[in-house]
Amino acid sequence: MTGGASTPYSEGMPSQSSPALGTRPHNLSLILRLVHENGAQSRAALTEQTGLNRSTIADLVAELVRRGLVDERVPDVAGRVGRPSPVVTASARIVAIAVNPEVDAIEIAAVGLDRSILVRERLPNETVPTPGVVAATIAERIAAWREGPLADARIAAIGVAVPGLVRASDGVVRNAPHLGWTDVPLADLVSAATSSAAFVDNDATLGAIAEHRYGAGRGIDDVVYLNGGASGIGGGLIVNGKPVAGAGGYAGEFGQNRPRISADADRRTADGVLEAEVSRRLLLDAVGLDTADDETLDAELSESGSAVVADEITRQARVLAGALANAVNVLNPALVVLGGFLATIADLRATQIADDVRALAMPESAETLEIRPAALGADRLLIGAAELALADLLADPGERS
């Protein structure tokens, strides 16, 4: 089975066939989503949240247990009188394979339905990977994990977060310029290599969904997310609680906009786009590294006493603030979330960025604005890819399990 840029259920990314409201399939989905998103829930809590009666909840939970999607246990509460309400948890044995192919490394993880990360690997690239190499690598790691950490697991699907333009209708990678991919049917390639359902979407779009659902943007309905990675800067939009993908699925490409740069000394290119001016590569060069993962680069930048490093961080923060001010004027978000190396800049120059954005944006649009680093850290894209992979199962567990 193959798939495209499917989008998770509640935020503008519906399954191919979502069950009708109030039907048994809908109620199974509702219960599974609650324990997937919010963690362990007692039957009593599920009864209160859904409005369903206790016997219906018991019956629905029993079916999900039979299908292997949830586990149920009776808590041992010392000193409690009477039988406590059984606690329901999503199963860690149902997993999504989450993948983020980048120019410097392929990151791949197995993420449980309970949102635990069972195994995660970062595989550095000697050369920029081709689509075929990515598909083969995914298949190789799955085969190896089946002999170890995934020996008792069931793979629901594979989700791939790609740094490039992904067509929403079928998941074809239209253009991933830093990877050198054009019109690549990546979902089909991965599915053929692994014999599993595969879904593909833009990495920043998935990062926005992950941060909105579980991270810095949880509970906030209007969010602009910018992701800083080895391939540049991408973005995702949450408007009225739903992701906005645009007519073809290509919305949010902030990195391709030309920033407002007031001082010539701040400019590194003659007429460069944002990702040429605010650049992970330039930060790596400043600290003298050829390559590094996010945690290593963050530590190097945070601990450096070099004036050259400090000046580069400050310069990039100024340019980034100009781009954010434009986004604030156009979209009027409640929150801007910055991920990847942008999160490090946001941590190190928080006051500067906030002050510059407010100075450049319309006062009315910026008066309640918050700017936060991504809360999910290096896991944000993998969690987003896992949500993509699990979308159909969560939408209709009776049909998909």
Question: What descriptors fit this protein?
Answer:
WH_DNA-bd_sf, 401 residues, alpha/beta, 15 helices, globular, kinase, Nucleotidyltransferase, domain 5, five-stranded mixed sheet, ATPase_NBD, kinase activity
Give the helix/strand layout.
Layout: H1 24-38, E1 41-42, H2 43-50, H3 54-66, E2 70-73, E3 87-90, E4 94-101, E5 105-112, E6 117-124, H4 131-146, E7 154-162, E8 165-166, E9 173-176, E10 181-184, H5 186-194, E11 198-202, H6 203-214, E12 223-229, E13 232-239, E14 242-243, H7 274-277, H8 280-287, H9 294-303, H10 307-331, E15 335-340, H11 341-348, H12 350-360, H13 363-366, E16 370-373, H14 380-395, H15 397-400
Parallel strand pairs: 4-7, 7-11, 12-15, 15-16
Antiparallel strand pairs: 1-3, 2-3, 4-5, 5-6, 8-9, 9-10, 12-13, 13-14
Description:
This protein has 401 residues and is an alpha/beta fold. It has two domains: 238 residues, Nucleotidyltransferase, domain 5 (2-Layer Sandwich), CATH 3.30.420; 160 residues, Nucleotidyltransferase, domain 5, CATH 3.30.420. Helix content is 41%, strand content 21%. A five-stranded mixed β-sheet has the order 6-5-4-7-11, sandwiched between helices. The two termini are 14 Å apart. The N terminus is likely disordered.
